[in-house]
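tool=predict chain=A
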Amino acid sequence: MNTMPKTDKECCKINAVVTVDAKGQIVLPKDLREKANIKPNDKLALIGIDQGKNVCCLVVMKVDALEETLKCMMRPILNHAFNSGEETK
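tool=predict ok
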């Protein structure tokens, strides 16, 4: 029985398969760069997801988006922490 909620939008899918060359470089396909609005000299963060001693997944995110994502993730946590402290005063 599938208990996953159905949505009209896909959040994750394979957009491209790339090859690592002898120098350890990859090329992001043009259509993917355009969809992600990646321009020359943009900074990208590579976020590794560990599984045991190995990295099993890499997430690529524009550094500008990373900052806003962290703010969105941390804001509720910090608000809760500071609001909880006020209740004990």
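Residues 63-87 form the longest helix (25 residues). The mean pLDDT is 83.
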